[in-house]
Amino acid sequence: MSTLTKFLMIGALIAVSACTNAGRFGKGDGYGSGSGASGAIVPGSANDPSSTAYFNQTIGDRVHFLIDQSSLTPEAQQILNGQADWLSRNGDYVAVIEGHADEQGTREYNLALGARRANAAREYLISRGVAPNRLKTVSYGKERPIEICSNEACYAKNRRAVTVLAAGLTS
Amino acid sequence: MKRYMLSLLIGASLFFTNVSSQVAAQNGPLRIEITDGVIEPLPFAVPDFVPASGEAAQVGRDIARVIASDLTGTGLFRELPSSAYISQVRDFAAPVQYADWKAINAQALITGSVSVSGGQVTVQFRVYDVFSDAELGNGLQFSGSASGWRRMAHKVADAVYARITGEGGYFDSRVVFVSESGPKDNRLKRLAIMDYDGANVQYLTDSASIVLAPRFSPSGDRVLYTSYESGSPRIYVLDIGQVQRRVLQQQEGTMSFAPRFAPNGKTVVFSIEKGGNTDIYAMDIASGQTSQLTNAPSIETAPSFSPDGSQIVFESDRSGGQQIYIMPAGGGEARRISFGQGRYGTPVWSPRGDMIAFTKQNQGRFYIGVMRTDGSEERLLTASFLDEGPTWAPNGRVIMFARETQGAQGRSSLYSVDITGRNLKPVPTPDGASDPDWSPLQN
Which of A69, A125, B137, B360 has the most CB atoms in a 10 Å sphere around its CB? Predict the structure, then answer.
């Protein structure tokens, strides 16, 4: 086994353990903890199931990837299942899926890697019944990190595909 | 700013004249072999250029300082301070007192005169091989607009460098780069251009959209770059003199990035991403006619032409990780040239044609390195948390690159290093900086 492969495998193990701890985009998180009187659904707020806030916080707007990988983990597939269901219930929305990479890579390669990730999420949503013309992709490579430390805890959060909703008619 | 840039370009048309000389040109013992790994810097003196009138005194001093800075900046030369001078140069035409310069061990002496008239500056200079009691090459005269005085100093330094090393110079050149400001999670980027030494910074775009990886045309008059102005990465070509830009044709629903000019200045190679897959294409800028050069499910990007235009070096992860390949300029079978440990990306063909510079990643570190075009003689020149994106000096002897520091306060800045691995040093920029591209020598 090459040193590189070993290195990637060790990295992958770290990434997996990071993923299992990161439940912040899991189901139920945020539901009921939003503002407003108990029981009342405030339109547009996170407890309105047709709101983008609900999509972003409760369904989960993003999936994460292992180092230098664009294949979808079981956790990612579960989140995308929720996204696909939501999109089929809320047909007025279109989405741009933004692919991102961590800073451990060269600029052009990371652009291409982010595109692979965004496309992997898009293809999965299409396979779950979302119309292709509702889903666009863009890659930001390593240009838009959300976490800025230089270690795996941050890198794991930056390796992501984020489904960004926009109101729009399907053409 | 626009007007200044135009006047700089007009000032750029310098005129060369030989200054008549009593001493025949010769290649004496004054010689630096810059391929040598370790070298004792050659001591030289460059007294203030003799002003023809009082108003030229300041520019005479400034020109001598820029020449000294260019030469010492190579690490190959060491300047003797003027406080050590025994004789002063007050008359450019008077015979040189070789004994006085030998006594302070000045092996090379550069003298010059400068006159200012009607917004024009005229510079004459001579180079002396002190220990041969002789002039090295002929005197030369440059003239141009007063605002272009730094370029005249760089021209003098290029001539001195060329005469002593036997290699072409690189001081009269510019660097286009991405100027960076703001924190890591909200970084603002805009294109900027400057002299190779960091002087005369000018901004070419605002920071409203992400801009990436500017690349000079072979004549240095245009720049290709990638911008998110439209919402997704597209390639733009910018005319530096006019500060006008236009977007290259692009298919809907695709991303294009990583452009570089062919040596003919008419063709652009770049990457197009479709449906998650990235390949390399070539486009004729004038007609928009595009041909696909690679066709693989892997990532093919970062193409760079050989100087003769016959081949393209690029990176691909077709073997499972990023490696460097070379293919014919029209596409076709590619041969892998990188085989060391780790990942290899961002290959750039040297202007001399003999080497490929690259970024290497291994065990969480980044390196700038060079290898021969057959992959042999790999040499790593730098190492850090994140070194990336080499670009060649016009003479193929120096490489500039970007280095980003680690952590939440991480900041990117420019560095240069000789291809021997010597003389690693920062290149000054007003703000953070990345993605440098070094121009050819200016005309």
Answer: B360
ipTM score here?
0.90
Which A residues 44-83 touch B at CB under 8 Å?
Answer: 68, 70
Q: In this structure, are residues B133 and B26 in contact, taking their beta carbons and an 8 Å threshold?
A: no
Provide CATH code, domain B248-438: 2.120.10.30
Compute the mean pLDDT over every residue in chain A, rounded to the nearest whole number.
Answer: 82
A109, A138, A149 ranked by CB distance to B232: nearest: A138
8 Å CB contact of B345 and A108: yes
Contact B29, B68 (CB under 8 A): no
Q: Across residues B410-439, what is the average pLDDT?
A: 97
User: Cα torsion for A8, A10, A14, A15, to the nearest 10°?
Assistant: 20
Residue range(s) in chain B whose domain bears CATH number 3.40.50.10070: 2-165
Proportion of chain B above pLDDT 90, given as a percent: 87
Alpha-carbon distance of B166 to B161, in angstroms, equals 8
Sign (positive/negative) of CA torsion B273, B277, B280, B284? negative
pLDDT, tens digit, for every residue of B267-319?
999 999 999 999 999 999 999 999 999 999 999 999 999 999 999 999 999 99
Residues carrying CATH 2.120.10.30, chain B: 248-438
CB-hemisphere CA count at 13 Å for B65? 9
Q: Please state which CATH number belongs to domain B2-165.
A: 3.40.50.10070
Quick one: pLDDT at residue B36?
59
pLDDT of residue A15: 39
* Cβ neighbours around B116 below 10 Å, total: 20
Nearest to A148 among B184, B343, B435 (CB): B184
Chain A contact probe: residue of B209, B234, B257, B314 with most A CBs at under 10 A: B257
Write down the mean pLDDT value for chain B. Answer: 91
Cα gap B221→B192, rounded to integer Å: 14
List the domains of chain A with CATH numbers.
3-25+61-167 (3.30.1330.60)
Give B1's pLDDT tier (boundaries 50, 70, 90).
very low
Which chain B residues touch A104 with a CB distance below 8 Å? 361, 364
pLDDT value of position A33: 36
